[in-house]
Design a protein that fits this description.
The protein is mostly beta strands. Helix content is about 0%, strand content about 55%. About 25% of the residues are buried.
Length: about 110
């Protein structure tokens, strides 16, 4: 069984920063994909940033230059550094791991006050 635990969300003022963490544990033999999605109220879940199986990093156009994904392979952990946050970045942020089975974290709420 694989578990993902996210942390780091919270309330921040516009222009502030947050760093999200996602720690994967359990029977992980390979990682094809690991990254972050978000779901804002009334909207579909969307990709934010992720490491892909071919070793590249994908970012949503809306976060390029503002958010940065990083990882620690030894700890099966990915981070999402979010800078210059805006109210429209408010969402529940989810971690996704594919091994190739898909595992989602429980989500962490990010709220940005204007």
């Amino acid at each position: 069984q694989v578990q993902l635990v996210e942390s780091g969300g919270g309330l921040v003022q516009a222009g502030g920063s947050l760093r999200l963490s996602c720690v994967a544990s359990g029977s992980i033999y390979s990682i094809n994909f690991m990254g972050w999605y978000r779901q804002a109220p009334g909207k579909q879940r969307e990709l934010v940033a992720a490491f892909t199986s071919i070793g590249s990093i994908n970012y949503a156009d809306s976060v390029k230059g503002r958010f940065a994904i990083s990882g620690d392979n030894a700890k099966n952990t990915v981070y999402l550094q979010m800078n210059s946050l805006k109210p429209e970045h408010r969402a529940v942020y989810y971690c996704l791991l594919r091994t190739p089975y898909s595992y989602w974290g429980q989500g962490t709420q990010v709220t940005v006050a204007a």
